[in-house]
Protein 1
Amino acid sequence: MTEGLIGPTIVDRTASLTSTPGANTIAILGACSSGTATLPYEVEREADASTSLGDGPLVELGAAVVRHSKTRQVLVRVTCAIAATISAVTESPAGPGPSVAASGTPLDTYDAKVKITLAGALGTGKFRVTLDGGSYGPELDLPVKAAGAVQGTVDLTTVTLADLNALTFIVDSSGASADTTTFTTPSSVQDVVDQINSGATGYLASLVQGRYLRVTDSVTGSAATIQVTTGTANATMGFTNNTSATGTDATYAIPHTGVTLTFPAGTYVLDTTYSFTTTEPRFTTTDLGLALDALRSSGVQFGDVFVAVRPVDGSETRLFADYLSARAASWGAGTPKKVALFAMGASVGAAGSPAANDLDVKAEMTGHSDPYVCVAHGDTYMTGSNLIGKARRPASFALAIRMASYRLSSDPGNGEQPPLESCSARSPDGTTKARNEETATTKMQSQGFTTLRENDRREQVCTRGRTRAAPSSKLRHLGVMRMATLGARELIPWANGYVNADRNLAADGTLLGADADNIEAVGTARFEQLLVGPEHASSCRLLVGRTEQIAVTDNITMRLEAQHKAQFASVTIELGVNGIAIAA
C-alpha cells in the first residue's frame, strides 16, 4: 500500500453539481419575487434557486428541475405586467367565529385554507394552513395583537441623573392625551421609570437590559400609535423628538407566499375553516420578449427554452404559442444564429373538470404547426420546494423535469423510465384527479399536444412527447426534434471554424477528394462524440459537398446527417397458449 494517497471524494449530488454546459441545460423563464429581471442565473443546487430569485413559480420549478436532473440549469425572471389576485375569505361553517382576512401580493397560485385546530381566543387557540387544499402545515398559535413601543438609545447608567432635574418627558399615547413628566433629581435609573409611571396614563415605562428607557402603549393593534414628543429630557435619554411607533394586528405571514392572514379578536371555533384562492402574477408576450432578448445576448450556454407560463384560456395559449413560433424563426435567422426548441404549457382550466378547457384549447390552437414549439396540455399536482404540499401546476412543469433529466432522444413517456418525478395525478386530499388523456373525451395528443395520463398504479406518466409539427413529420417526436436542434446548435459554430480556410481543388474546381475525406472524418468523429456517445442519436455522419465548384462559389457545403433513436409508439404482444398465438 502506498502511503500518502488521498481517498476518493464523495459528493452529495443533491447539493453540489458540476457546472458544465450540456444538452440537458434548459433555460427556464417565469415569475418570481426577487432577483434582477431578465438576468440569467446559472443554478447548480436546489437551494440556489430561492437564494437568487426568492419565491414563485419559477423558483419552485427551477428547484425541482435541478433536484432531479442534477445538472446546471438557467433561470430567468420575467417582469410581470399582470398583477396577482387574492379572493375574499370564505368561512365554513359560516358565522361561528371571527372573520379572518387574507391580504398582500401573492407570489403564486394557491388553494389556501386556514383550519382552527384548538378553539380559543387570540394567543390561546391554534390553527394550521394548507396552500393546496389538503396538505396542512404544522400547528401554530393564534397570534396576538401587539402595542407600539418607543425606546431610547442612551444607557441611563452613564447619565448624571442630576442633569434631569426640572427637564420634561412628554408622551402622547393612544390610551390618553399627551402626558408630561417633570423630573425631580432622580435618585436612580429605576427612579426615572417610577417618576414617569407615577403620572402615566395610557402607557407604561420600563427598562430594557436595566439601562435603556422604553415606553409602551396600553392599546394594541394597528390603529394605536404612541409618540414621544418634544420634552426637554429627550436628548439626555436618547430620544428623537416626535418619534412614534404603531402597534400591530394579530397577523401571520405565510412563508414564501406574499400573503398575510389577519385574525380579529374573538373566540375561534374548532374545525372552522377559512378558504381563499390566489392567482400568480402573469407576464405578457412583451414582458417575455425582453427576457428572451436578454437571454439570447447574454452568452450563457443553454439548450432548449422552457416558458413557465399559465395561460388563462385557449386564446392566450395560442397567443403565446404563436409568439414562440415567431421567436424560434427569428433566432434561427438572426446573427448569430441560435437554434432552440421552445416548450410551454396550455391553459389548465378548472380543477377536475377538463372537458370545456380541452375543447377551448383545441379550437384555438387549430392551424398552429411548428416543430420548434412544444405545448404540454393538462395538469399535475407537483411537490413543492419552499411550499408545503403539492400545488396544481400545468403539465408542462412535469415535462421540464423530464427534458432536463434524461437523454434528448428519450421520449418523456418512455416506459423504461420511472413515473413523473415529484408529480401526482391526484390532489393531496385525493378528491380531484388531474386530466387523464386516456379517459378524456377530447383527445389532445393527436392534436399535437404533449399530454399526461394516470397508469394502473395510480402514477402519473407522460403519454408521449409531441411538438407542434405536422402529424406526418418525424419532427413531431419531441426527442427527435431536441436531438436535431442540438445537432444544429453544435454544427453552426463548428462549421464556422472553416470560414476563410483553404483546401486543395481538383482541376474542375471541386474540392479534392482527400481534403473532403479529411473534413468528413473530423466532423463525423466530433458529432459521434456529441450525439451518439450520450445516446442522443443512433448514428451520424458529416458530408461535404463534392460537386460544388468552389473555385467559382468560394463556398463549401456541409451536411450533418443524424439517425434518430427508435421511437416505440406502441408494442405488439403475442401470447402463445397451447401452441395458439393470441394477439394482444
Protein 2
Amino acid sequence: MGSNPTLSAKENLVEKKYTSLARKYRPQSFDEIFGQDVAVKILQNSILTKRIHHAYIFAGVRGTGKTTAARIFAKALNCERGPTPNPCGVCKNCKEITQGNFIDLIEMDAGSQTSVEDIRSIKEKAIFPPARGRFKVFIIDEAHMLSLSAFNALLKIFEEPPDFDIFILATTEPHKIPETVSSRAIRIDFKKIPKEKIVERLEIICQNEGIECEKEALELVAEEGQGSLRDSISILEGIWMYNGDKKITREDLGEIIGIAPQSVIIKLLESIIEGDHKKAIEIADLVLEKGYNTKRIARDLADITKDIILFLSGANKTDVNKKAIGQSRLEEINWILDKTHPTIEHLMRIYNGIIKFEDDLRASISEEIAFRMFVFKLSYIHKIKTFKEIIEEIRNENKVNKELNKSSKEEIFSQIIDFLIQSGRNILSDKLRQASYELSDNSFTIFFDDQRIIRSLTEMKEDIEEIIRKSIGKDINLKLELKKQKEEIDVEKILGDEFEKQGNNLEKAKELW
C-alpha cells in the first residue's frame, strides 16, 4: 500500500512550521533579557533573599519584556532546582512554562477579560494550592484595562493572599491602576531599551539567521522601534521577508518603511524657518505622494531642531558632544544656520509646534489634512506674536495713550482759559486756573468749589465744546462738577447715649470716638 503524499506534505509542513523571530528569540532566562538590568536585579535578589512579595506591577512601554520577565520569574520560582535566580530550563516545570502549558501559571489578557466574573474565576483558582509547583503565579496582562469593579473584586485577595499565590500585573499605563491596588504591590519599571542594546540583539539574530544587513540599517531599525525590542525585531523580520536573500541597506530600509531621505527633512526645516509657506506645502505634498511616514518626519524634524537649539545655546559645542552627535549632523546644522540664521526663540516655538503633531493627528479626520496644516502652521509661526511681544505692545500702547492723554488734557484746559481771557472774563479765567480737571475717552470734566462758577460756564458750554473740537479734532463732552466735600463725622449720631452721658461735651466725645 503506497504512502499518502498529501499526508506526508502536511507532516513536513508541521515540522517546518515557521516561528516568528520575536517568539523564536524570546528570552528564556534572566541573563537573556536585554536592557533591563535594574528590573532583573530586583527579581533575582527577591529570590536570593527570600523576600518574595505576593504582588508585583510590571510597568513600561510595549515590547520591553514585561510579560517575558513575568514568565521567567514564574520559572525561577517553580524550577525543580529552585527557587533560583537562574532557572535550569531543562526540568519538567521549566519546559512546561516555556511551552505555555504549566498548570500553575495562569495568564489573563485584561484587554479582553475585563469583567468581575473574570476576576472571580481567578479568585476561585487562587484559593487552591499549586498542583505541581511551589507557587501559583497569575499574570494579568494589560492590567490597566480592568474595570473598577474588577479591581475591587481583585482587592480582597490582594489584601489577604495565600502564601503560595503570586500576582503580576503587567501594564503600559500604570497610572490607571487604582491606588488601593498599586499600594499593595511592588512596582518594577521596565525602561525603554537603549538603541545600542537593541542593535546588539539584532546583530545576534542576523548572524544566527544568516541575514545580511548593514550596521546603519540596524541602527535605523532600532530608532524606528523607539525603545521596544519586540517592535524592532518585527520591523527587521518584515524587511527580511521583503528583501529576500539580498543584503539589507539603509536606503532599502528607508524606502520599505517609509522613512524620508534626510535631504527632505533639511529642506522642509529650511522652508519652515524662513516662513516660506508655498515651498513648505510643496514638500508636504511630495511627502504624502511618496507615502513617507509622517510621524517619523515629525520626529526627525524635532530631533534636528533640538540639536540646532542646543548648538546655538552652546550646550553641545564641546568636543565630546560634537563626537556624540556625529560629523554628518554637524554639517546639517551648519548648513541650516548659514541658510536661515534662526534665533533660539524662533526654533523653540517651532519645536513646541512639532511635538504637538501627534495630538493634532489623533484629532484630525485625515492624516493628509493634519500633515499639511502641521507644515503650514510651522512655516507661519514666525508671524504669530508671542505672549511676551503682545504684552510689550500693550504696555507701549498704554504709555503712548497716557502721554497723548496728558498733552491733550493740558491743551484743552489752556484753550478754555484763552477763550475766557479773549472774551473779557478774566476773573472767571483766574477761578478756572485753580480748578482740577480730567480727560476720559469722550468727556472733559472740570471740578469747582463754587456752584456759581459752574452756572457761569454752563452758559458758554456749547462754545467751549466747539473750541475743544477744533483744538483736538474730536467731539468732547464738557462736564462741570462740584468737588466732593469730605464728610464730617456726626459724633452725636455715632455715639448716641454715650454722647448724652458725657454731657454733650464735644471734645470729650471726640476723644472717646
Protein 3
Amino acid sequence: LAGMETNKYVTETMDANRQTIQFQNSDYDSLSNATGNMSVNGSGNKYNFLSYFSKFNYSYNSKYLLSASLRYDGSSKFGKNNQYGLFPAVSAGWRVSEENFLSANKIVSDLKLRASWGKNGNSNIPTGATETYFVSDYNGTSYSIGGNETGSLPSGYRRVQTGNEDLKWETTTQADIGLDFGLFDQRVTGSIDYYHKYTDGMLFQPPYLGTIGEGGYQWVNAADMTNNGIELEIGYRSNPSKDFTYSIRGNISHNKNTIAHLPKSVQYSYGGSALKGDDIQGHPLHSYYGFVTDGIFKSQDEVANSAAQPGKGLGRIRYKDISGPNGKPDGQIDYDYDRTWIGSWDPTVEYGISFAANYRNFDFSMFWQGVAGNTVNDGWKCYSYFYNVWVQNGFNHPTRVLNAWSPANPNSNIPALSLINPNDELRTSTYFMESGSYLKLRNIQVGYTLPARMSSTIGMEKLHIYVMAANIVNLKKTSGSNAFTGPDPENPDGSSYSNPYVRPQTYKVGLDVSF
C-alpha cells in the first residue's frame, strides 16, 4: 500500500458587541440601536499537513507474519529546515500454535509471539511557534520621554514571543515484545507485553529569565523521556452451553517514567534548585518538589532547638533542615537548599477487573478499577486544616478541624487554627503528600430480557430492562503516615486544588428496545 494525504485547517472568527440597549423589545436589539461601549474583535488560524505513507504486509502459511510501514510527515507549524519527519515501523509475529509440534496439544489452543518497533511524531504546538511576533498595545507601551508631553500618546508595540526556527518534530520511539495465549479451547485467554518508549525533543514553552525582557517566551524541544513497563491481561469464560454462564477478566500494568535529559536552558523549569543542582533528570515527569515536614511543634523546647524558620511556634508545622550552601544542614530553613523531590502523582501500578454473568434471561455485570503507588497533593487539607488562611469564608469544614492543636489539645497533629500564615504552611511539602491509591466500583448493572414470545406480542423484537449504578464504592488508604484524608484521591492532574470533590454517584433505570 502506498498513498499520500494532505490536510488544510483554516479558521476565521469575528465578534462585535455594544452595550446599553434602550429597548425592551427584542426585535430592536441590534448593534446600531445600542448606545454604550462597543468593541470588534477578530482572529484566525491556518496550518497544513502533508503525509506520504506506505505499508507492507506478509504472511507465510498463517504462521510467520511481517508488517512494515513508513511515513514521511510534514507540518507548516515547523521551520523550513525541520518541516518533515521520517517515521518507520516494523512488526513480526510467530503463531507458534500452528506448528506441528503443538497441533495435537489439548491444553494450548492459541499461542502467538510478537515483537514491534517504530517511531511516531508529535506536532502539537500553536501555529506561529517558529515566529517572533509583536502586538499593538494601547496601555503601557507609550512613554513620555521628555516628561512634558500632553494629550494622548500614540500606541506602541511589544514583543509577545521569540521565534525558534530550529523547532522539530517531537519523536517517540517504542519497542514492544509480547505473547498472546489461549488455553483449553479458548476458555482461558490472555496476553503479556513488555515495552520501552523513548521520547526525544518534547515540545515545551518554559518560563524565561526576566532579564531577557518582554516576549521571552519561546517554544523549544526541551526534554527527553523514557517509559518502561509491563502489561498483563488474563480472562476466563465458562462453558457457554449451560443455563448459567459467566466470564471474568483482569488486567494489571506497571510503568516507570523518567526524564532522561534536559537542555541547560530549561533544567529547572520542571522543578529543582540550581544552587543544589538537583533538577528533574532521573525523576518522573509528574513529580513534586517541596519541603519535608517533621510533625508539629508541641513544646517550647522543640521550638527553641529546631532550625530557624520565620513564623515557627507552638502548633505550627516543623520543616526539616536538609542542607545548606555546603551541602550539610545549616540550622536554617531555606527555600533554595531545603526543598527536595517528595513524590510523583503517576501510579506505579494500574489494574482493573470485570465480571459478567447470565442466567437464562437475567444478566449481571460489574467493573472495578484502581491504581497504587502514587502520591497526590491533598489540597482538601487547605479546606479542613487551615480554617481561615486560604479564602475559607462560605465553606463547610470537616469536624476534624475541631481537633486542631491548642494548649488544651497539645498532642494533635493538626496545626493550630489561625487567621494568618506567618509560617507559610500552604507551601508544597510532605504535609500535603498522601497516598493516591484507590479501588473503585466503576459500574454495576443488573438486567432482565423479556422472553421473545412475550415481547413479540407487543410488537417488539427485544425488550431489556436494567438498573445501573456507578462510583458507589470508593476504597482508599485510611491509615498510616500517608493515609489520604480528603474525599477522593482520584484527580487528573494530581492536585486536589482544582478538583477537591468526589466523582458523583450515578443511578439509572433504563430500557433497551428493538423492533
